């Protein structure tokens, strides 16, 4: 209960796990602790770890109970994020049949989430029906996406006419010049029906969008092709040249060059066409062979084989690649997309490479790049899995060290402190870079501390102090960890000595907590006389440390109550209640104050 009141849900869950048989009055708080801990894990991107907590949260309540339904809704979300679509759908189906969570945003999203489980499994007919069901409710949260996915369902089932109408409806209902996806798909669908005028109509939306907008390059490419189909070569050239000047995708640039070469060749500008095709060959990739064939065709038409052979001989191995060379080119193209900084697109190209080459020679490096893309996009679990896979596949050198560091940091951020500790330990043992060695020492201290491995935390704090980094904040943190480790292993006098050192600067978070703990220690020992003076002295120096200052004033109120000065105690608690603003969901100050005020009213 203390842990729960202090919003330390990890500790609350750990404590409940040690209770063999819960009394009925405990069950409500047991469920609350597990749900709140699960939400912490989900906020950190640790979806798999949240699932057992959510199951525990729902265990003691009936299916029709709102709390049970909320816990199972988030369990379904966590399973979906982990790719377990059927398991997620089983829960969502039950919630839907129960008409669960009516009036809540989660209840409104049940049909939307159900639709996505089918969409991910490529069951587009069922997905379309569930997205439609969602739109018939209150689509205020995900309406734009649901309408887009309905159109996608028609498109992916080959019903292009209906898809165009659906994309057009989405653009009317949710206008956004930088959301080119519906216009792009509507344009492609129009082209597939042979209506190039309509294709141009939709794809010209790219002219009003920012070049950084997603699907900007793809839209320009398809717009250029539509102009070509309509024999509007001038507009086609402008579209392809704009694409070349704005894209950082090597594949799109090569495709634009091939189109420019074809237009020049059809206009009788052979040298200009050869210039475009040679640029494609120089860039390599999947389109180099097409460019070589086009160059060969032009030289044959000119009856100038000597010039063609001279050019081919100058290319060396580029003109005749082995399978290994082709794989290298494929990987290089994917690598270039990653290096360009377009991480969302890089995910697709790198995954395609790994699918095409299951025994990829560059598999470890590709997985490292994928991990980096997922990490940058905020998908922590996928990133951690891929860093581990890359290392297991033999990633070496600086990339291996970087992967291990990122794996350790991600696990720490997700609250997997035991895994983080093990990874940081390996970094410490193997790192070649001094900065990573230092990072490992610091990471070991923080991981051990967060994992409540007090003996390890104490040793690691000493190692951080031995760094003599000159970083005052880090040295203060290490002293704080040592003090808390002392306190948690019943070495109270040593802990209090460190807290006194820290309390000299109560404007820092560590110093403020230390000052509060020293005041609390006086109260615990029944030494009430000096507490008012200590609290007011703390208040004069605790700039910006409102939480710990408020906690200290709670001790002051408790002191007045212990001395029988109930009016003064009530006034102290009321002043905190009226003047304090909670700093986050784990802030327990106002809860503690309300508890005390209720006791004083009895």
Describe it.
By secondary structure, the protein is mostly helical. The chain has a domain at 518-602. It is 75% helix and 0% strand. The protein has 34 helices and no strands.
Question: How would the blueprint of this fold be written?
Answer:
Elements: H1 2-5, H2 9-17, H3 24-43, H4 47-59, H5 66-81, H6 85-97, H7 105-108, H8 110-120, H9 124-135, H10 143-156, H11 160-173, H12 181-192, H13 196-203, H14 216-229, H15 233-246, H16 250-266, H17 270-283, H18 288-302, H19 305-315, H20 323-339, H21 343-356, H22 363-376, H23 380-392, H24 397-413, H25 417-430, H26 434-450, H27 454-466, H28 472-488, H29 492-502, H30 509-524, H31 531-541, H32 546-562, H33 566-579, H34 589-601
Instruction: Assign an overall shape.
Output: elongated
Spatial separation of the terminal alpha carbons = 22 Å
Q: Could you say which structural class the secondary elements and strand pairing correspond to?
A: mainly alpha
Radius of gyration: 32 Å
pLDDT average, as an integer?
A: 93
Largest sheet: none
Flag low-confidence runs. none
The total count of helices amounts to 34
Tell me what portion of residues adopts beta-strand conformation.
Answer: under 5%
